């Protein structure tokens, strides 16, 4: 059984984008290739348990075992030594990717307090990154089991040729972007 968002992409989004950008080749239509979820652990140098807690939380959120990221070089000002664990990351593909994207768009983002949409800035190659300030917005994590509040970065990697195509793809998949006229507004 295909994930709900994958069925939406195959059923309506692909043909909509193909028509919108006048793409002749079916294989040239932009698609989502992977989602990378990354947690840089603040305070990992002082407390090794924070990395273990982040790995446990990220595994529960994504349904996949994260890889522990280590420091590439030593920085004495931060008391950081080479190969010291400082974060964790997961790369989601295929069914896991589609299910995570569906949960993120339909459940997690609406749970954020005072949510007005995500920023509309892509990276220039059709990929999109967003940051969450805490992992407690995910329903997979019981609030009483969270040891440390931890933020995360989520990157959507697409095959889009440019930002315009990437934006159209993510918007059609349900990403709740801010209204362009409100982007510059402050409270």
What does this structure look like?
This protein is α+β, with helices and mostly antiparallel strands and 187 residues long. It folds into two domains: 1-29 and 92-175, Ribosomal protein L5 (50s Ribosomal Protein L5, Chain: A, 2-Layer Sandwich), CATH 3.30.1440; 41-89, no CATH class. It is built from four helices and five strands. It has helices at residues 4-20, 49-62, 94-111, 163-172, and strands spanning 32-40, 67-70, 85-92, 128-132, 152-158. A five-stranded antiparallel beta sheet has the order 2-3-1-5-4. Helix 1 packs across helix 4 (163-172). The longest helix is centred in the middle third of the chain and has 18 residues, at 94-111. It is globular and about 55 Å long.
Through-space gap between termini: 44 Å
Gyration radius, to the nearest Å? 18 Å
Report the total helices. 4
Mean pLDDT over the residues: 81
CATH class of the largest domain: Alpha Beta
The CATH superfamily label of the largest domain reads: Ribosomal protein L5
Q: Pick out the low-confidence regions.
A: 182-187
Largest sheet: 5 strands, antiparallel
N-to-C SSE string, H for helix and E for strand:
HEHEEHEEH
**Percentage of residues in strands:** 15-25%
Number of domains: 2
CATH topology of the largest domain: 50s Ribosomal Protein L5, Chain: A
CATH architecture assignment name of the largest domain: 2-Layer Sandwich
Strand numbers in spatial order across the main sheet: 2-3-1-5-4
The helical percent reads 25-40%
Q: What general outline do the C-alpha atoms trace?
A: globular
Tally the beta strands: 5
Which structural class matches the secondary elements? Answer: alpha+beta
């Amino acid at each position: 059984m295909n994930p709900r968002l994958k069925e939406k992409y195959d059923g309506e989004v692909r043909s909509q984008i193909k028509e919108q950008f006048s793409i002749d080749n079916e294989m040239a239509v932009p698609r989502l290739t992977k989602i990378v979820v990354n947690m840089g652990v603040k305070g990992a140098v002082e407390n090794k348990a924070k990395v273990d807690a982040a790995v446990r939380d990220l595994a529960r959120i994504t349904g996949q075992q994260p890889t522990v990221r280590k420091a590439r070089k030593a920085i004495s000002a931060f008391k950081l030594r080479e190969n010291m664990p400082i974060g964790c990351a997961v790369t989601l593909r295929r069914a896991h990717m589609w299910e995570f994207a569906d949960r993120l768009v339909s459940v997690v983002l609406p749970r954020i307090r005072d949510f007005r949409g995500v920023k509309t800035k892509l990276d220039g190659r059709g990929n999109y990154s967003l940051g969450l300030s805490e992992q407690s917005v995910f329903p997979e994590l019981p609030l009483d089991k969270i040891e440390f509040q931890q933020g995360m970065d989520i990157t959507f990697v697409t095959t889009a040729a440019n930002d315009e195509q990437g934006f159209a793809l993510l918007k059609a998949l349900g990403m709740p972007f801010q209204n362009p006229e409100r982007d510059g507004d402050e409270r």
